[in-house]
Design a protein that fits this description.
Elements lengths: L17 H11 L11 H11 L6 H11 L3 H10 L11 E6 L2 H5 L2 H11 L12 E6 L11 E3 L2 E4 L3 H12 L7 E2 L26 H5 L15
Helix pairs in contact: 2-3, 3-4, 6-7
The structure holds FE2/S2 (inorganic) cluster.
The site of FE2/S2 (inorganic) cluster has 11 residues, from helix 5.
């Protein structure tokens, strides 16, 4: 887990754009009187988006002012959640999961790739393309190891598949998010391995089938002339 501090180099000011301010006010209005501070996370998220993927101190303060909160309270939220970047990030920001299930499935190898391909954690490549940070569990442990790149999850990774993804992104391609092996979402690898007996899906029991009329006759039996 990385240290969560405001960047040393900060922007001189921040103000929501007119559109974002209107959006922010609509979010705030969703909450009952006295609970407007509950909008802090969506507002920080929008401020981060407007700032190009990170939260300058002035943006945190602007959110505090809009919500009537103490600046330190908003700073606490911004520094707690790794979804908020406290310093500039690359065009593709990789959140690398370093929690136990991912580690047990080979996350260490992914970390080596990130070091090799991008550089030090929390640093942006010279061309501004990549940055990476280690975070806690991202809730996709069943597809471990995994990383999040911008808004997408890349799962069931190996050093090779992560390297390929980074190369593709750098080349302007959009690699397919999700599992990087032959697997449907988080279904078992290799296809279903439980509840596979077709008999359990029969709508009738064998005794009900025995009592049914033979095919070609209806329920009232053969027609008489
Ligand atoms: S431990 Fe990596 S996603 Fe949960």
């Amino acid at each position: 887990m990385s240290v969560r501090r405001l960047a040393e180099k900060q922007l001189p000011s921040f103000a929501f754009t007119a559109d974002n301010l209107e959006w922010a006010k609509a979010q705030i209005a969703k909450y009952p009187p006295g609970r407007q501070q509950s909008a802090v996370i969506p507002l920080l998220w929008r401020a981060q988006d407007q700032s190009g993927g990170w939260l300058p101190q002035k943006a945190i303060e602007a959110v505090a002012e809009l919500l009537g909160m103490a600046k330190i309270r908003v700073l606490e939220v911004a520094t707690f959640y790794t979804m908020f970047n406290l310093a500039p990030v690359g065009r593709f920001h990789v959140q690398f999961c370093g929690t136990t299930p991912c580690l047990l499935r080979g996350a260490d190898e992914l970390k080596k790739v990130l070091h090799r391909a991008i550089g030090h954690e929390n640093e942006v490549t010279a061309d501004g393309t990549f940055s990476w940070v280690e975070v806690e569990c991202l809730g996709a442990c069943v597809n471990a190891p995994m990383v999040q790149i911008n808004a997408d999850y890349y799962e069931d990774l190996t050093a090779e598949s992560l390297t390929r993804i980074l190369i593709d992104l750098a080349a302007g391609k959009m690699p397919k998010p999700g599992p990087q092996i032959d697997r449907q979402n988080s279904a078992p690898v290799g296809g279903p391995n439980t509840l596979t007996d077709p008999a359990i899906y029969r709508k009738t029991t064998p005794s009900q089938e025995a009592a049914m009329p033979p095919p070609g006759t209806d329920s009232t039996g053969p027609q008489r002339n």
